[in-house]
Amino acid sequence: MQVLVYGAGQLAQMMYLDGAALGIDVQAVDVSNNTVVHPVSKQPLDCSLEQAIERADVLTVEFEHVPEALLETAEQSGKLHPNKDAILVGADRVREKALLERLNIPNCAHRIVTDLTQLDECVEALGERLIIKASRDGYDGYGQWRLSQKADLPALKKQLEGLDLVRVPLVVEQMLKFDREVSLIGARNVSGDIKVYPLAENLHYQGQLHVSVAPATNSDDALTAKALEIFSKLVEGMDYVGVLAVELFQCGDTLLVNELAPRVHNSGHWTQAGADTSQFENHLRAVLDLPLGDTTNIGGDAAVSAMVNIIGCDDHDLALLGLPGVHFNWYGKTVRNKRKMGHINVTASGYKALGSKLEQLSGYLSADHFPELVDEAARLQK
């Protein structure tokens, strides 16, 4: 079995590593130059993109910002999972909002802006506290602006001058006072079987995910059922195949969709050490229409996991490998500010034990680059 992944980053690398155990040959496409490469070494392989498409059983993606011309060719092959329209939904917030409205899925109150004069109408309709997002090419806090009071609107308009809002509209959302962000990672295979992982609770810093904890604290069957209903509507409404990540704002007992990611996702990395079957293996199983693997936590109902992102640094102490239940993953990238360099998965038999392990882990990491870790460790130990 052979799978060709569009994108040659760490997600393709982790798919390759999990696929090898199943006898699945995973190759990657560097979409900047259409070169087929080895997902780990990044060395070019001795075949053209056309040859790789012909040989592959399935084509898939590791990120949603694949050039549309490449996606169109992939779709025409009849081998692409998830389908092109689903991938484009993840790459374009306007398409994403249209899908959520069509499927009657709760999401943040919003307006689409193609001219800066429309911002005045947004304030009148949504209030003066707003989140403004570029509809494309924005992630990890990039391409986002905030309005805290109406008096700052002229300055915000000036800041946005020069943007081509006809080509890349803005999605303007009401700034919510939500309790927390959770995410649901799940998979649907070609046959329509669905399996989801426990809800993960996500902690962000400066627009980037820093820590995920799964299962989410203070979650119950009712909350999980609401998330599963949303997930099921989405995958069936898009005829989706593969792993899908759904980021959700929790406001009391209500869940609102924040964003969709049509691929394996950062908040699901904990599944490598904490779940019976990782999200990477289940994505390959799904797109190849193999039986989906068990998504429950290893260790039973008391077992919990955390994922800690390593962002913009390489100054960790590898003595952390001596900590029980700690699993280190390094991507082999050149250090750059705000760049995801790797992640650490931590498993434990309960939230207090997990908090204790995260506290121990913090001693091997720079506090400057992991500013939320100590507080999260303390929260879990309460």
TrEMBL record:
MF-aspect GO terms: 5-(carboxyamino)imidazole ribonucleotide synthase activity; ATP binding; metal ion binding; phosphoribosylaminoimidazole carboxylase activity
HAMAP family, per the entry: PurK
EC number: 6.3.4.18
Organism classification: Bacteria, Pseudomonadati, Pseudomonadota, Gammaproteobacteria, Alteromonadales
Pathway per the UniProt entry: Purine metabolism; IMP biosynthesis via de novo pathway; 5-amino-1-(5-phospho-D-ribosyl)imidazole-4-carboxylate from 5-amino-1-(5-phospho-D-ribosyl)imidazole (N5-CAIR route): step 1/2
InterPro entries: ATP-grasp, ATP-grasp_carboxylate-amine, ATP_grasp_subdomain_1, PreATP-grasp_dom_sf, PurK, PurK_C, PurT/PurK_preATP-grasp, Rudment_hybrid_motif
NCBIfam families: PRK06019.1-5, purK
SUPFAM superfamilies: Glutathione synthetase ATP-binding domain-like (SSF56059), PreATP-grasp domain (SSF52440), Rudiment single hybrid motif (SSF51246)
Family: Belongs to the PurK/PurT family.
Name listed for the protein in its UniProt record: N5-carboxyaminoimidazole ribonucleotide synthase
Keyword terms: ATP-binding, Ligase, Nucleotide-binding, Purine biosynthesis
Residues the entry annotates as binding ATP: 93, 133, 138-144, 173-176, 181, 204, 258-259
Enzyme class: ligase
Catalytic activity from the UniProt record: 5-amino-1-(5-phospho-beta-D-ribosyl)imidazole + hydrogencarbonate + ATP = 5-carboxyamino-1-(5-phospho-D-ribosyl)imidazole + ADP + phosphate + 2 H(+)
GO biological process: 'de novo' IMP biosynthetic process
One Pfam family this sequence matches: PurK_C
Record has Membrane as a keyword: no
GO cellular component: cytosol
Gene3D superfamilies: 3.40.50.20, ATP-grasp fold, A domain, ATP-grasp fold, B domain
Role according to the record: Catalyzes the ATP-dependent conversion of 5-aminoimidazole ribonucleotide (AIR) and HCO(3)(-) to N5-carboxyaminoimidazole ribonucleotide (N5-CAIR).
